[in-house]
Amino acid sequence: MKNVLKLALGLLVISLTSCGKQETGELTGVLERPSWSGINPYGMVYVSSGTLLIGPSDQDVNSTFVQRPKTISITGFYMDETEITNNEYRQFIEWIRDEKAHRALGHFLEQLDDGTEQDDEFGEQALDWDQEIDWEDEELAETKEEIYLSREESSSERLEYNPASFSYKYRYYDMQQAAQYDWQAAAKDKGNGSKAKSRKEFFVTVTVPSVYPDELVWVRDFAYSYNEPIARNYFWHPAYDDYPVVGINWHMANAFGYWRTKLYNQALAAQNTKNKSDIISTEDFRLPTEHEWEYAARGGHESAPYPWGGPYIRNAKGCLLANFKPGRGNYPEDGGMYTVKADAYFPNDYGLYNMAGNVAEWTSSAFHENAYSFLHDLNPDYRYDAKEDDTLADKRKVIRGGSWKDVHFYLQTGTRNWEFQDTTKSYVGFRNVITFLGRSINDF
Questions:
Q1: Domains and CATH numbers, the chain
Q2: What is the pTM of this model?
Q3: pLDDT tens across 221-244, in order?
Q4: Which of 32, 39, 218, 429 is the most exposed place for a label (fewest CB within 10 A)?
Q5: Torsion over CA: 26, 29, 35, 40 (sign)
Q6: Cα Rg of the chain, angstroms
Q7: Which distant-in-sequence residues (6+ apart) come within 8 Å of 198 by Cβ?
Q8: Which residues contact 95 (CB under 8 A, 6 or more apart)?
Q9: Beta strand 428-429 with 360-366: parallel, antiparallel or unpaired?
């Protein structure tokens, strides 16, 4: 009823204000707010809010000391239906390549009405992405030398990218640090002449030296094993376009999420300009917390040991249900010698593929053996952004799901494992989530 009255008052205000804004004297809220009807990100599925009993399965007695059972609540979110593929990640790489070319060619946006230049978040002149790139332009000669390896450095006849030239810089607002700052006291002290902290002091700038996938992981991870062919072709060859990207460390995965958010919001802004609409930007694409990941992996099945429910790793016909190592020295029985396509096998009941096997997946959570002892039961989140000089133990990040080279213990939805945040592996990939804004998708 209250919404109906607001609508009626809104129409009344519109009818009375042909020449300008006029207040009615009633508490209506701000009437000229942007509309919001939710989003439906391409390639993602909706996972509704709910509860989850975390902890080990009944077969994992030893882990009861580090995975104590606890009931938690998780806010709804969207999650990529598959792991990020080589071709999807290649879009990120080529965006960085094109950015360098646009800057070299001077493709900048025009000045604003007040004569100032349009800048990006780092104060650099904003680019005009609508302009065409002529790769034969002489002005790009130096840039091409930076982007591509020389013939002397290339290991094949094709033109190869130089991994060292694909650095990426982004920044984020550190809410954890900002929340510790007493803004009320600072405002009071400011009135007394003291200098309060600026909000910009809580922004953290991150530079990832290279976001190009480490192709040599296929050789490095396995001693006395011939894997050079897949190392040469996995990220480059079209045969592997729909396979999950690997050789990505935790920092690179975070950089991808930031870039994806930026790309999505730029598209929304362009759509607003074209359609004269007011769709606002949305939450960030990011890595899931380990418990968001576990909640999604269970597919709505309470205490399910595997994404398909369980308790077995084969169906009634005897077919294996995921890509993993089913027996000693036996990699191909499940249909894949290494990784398989990201949408192989049947999805779980949320529509998510390969939440067990294929590649293990990065989460945003730091790994600590007894983290379950002190985690909050509302959207639990244990994070620690380890610095370069921190101990190795502080640099551990949780990975989930098991991989093509793991035994089925690691495929269980409750099994925790970890890798160092600056480590690249041939069996670790990732997928993104984005928090759902609102109670339920049915509200829109």
A1: 1-33 (no CATH), 77-85+211-443 (3.90.1580.10), 174-202 (no CATH)
A2: 0.90
A3: 999 999 999 999 999 999 999 999
A4: 32
A5: negative
A6: 25
A7: none
A8: 259, 263
A9: parallel
